[in-house]
Write the structure tokens for this entry.
Amino acid sequence: MTLLEYYHEISEAYSEHITQQQMYEICGFSKSTAYKAENSGAIPFVKEVNHLLHTHRIKLIDALAFKYKREHGYRQDDEYISYLRRFYDKRLKGLPDILTVSDISEITGFVEQSVQRWIGKGYLKAFAKGRGRGYRIPKESLIVFLVSPAYNSIQNKSDKQIATLQNFRAWYSARIGGVKI
């Protein structure tokens, strides 16, 4: 699957080249983060000068690659991540394959507005049920989100998230021979 297919809604809404403002809307970060990403070379751009107006022309595919890397910045083959994924696979085994915002809220311990924000920012992949009828979230999308940096770097963790991470650390330590992480 290509990035344009993965982010099909974004790729349909924007042209091949975007502005700096569109980039931080797509990627869901601030102007200063966009500026730093461009100046560090993480997102290539071309500076265009039109009389008094200076703009940055950015390829949509470069912005999508940066967004994907931010959302899934871990390596899939990382041992810790693969154990974390196995932990969540076992923990969520009895759940249906399609979940609701309410289900996700109950699983994570965050309010439904937080879950909707994660969906809106593209961290949690979901499908609209219909106009104004909520979202359907595949269990696989939830697991991908739960092992992602977006979820694990939340500053104000819910009590359920803290308890789940403590359970995982104990489970992980038992599997790798009692080594503390």
In short: The mean pLDDT is 83. The domain at 79-175 is CATH 1.10.1660 (Multidrug-efflux Transporter Regulator; Chain: A; Domain 2).
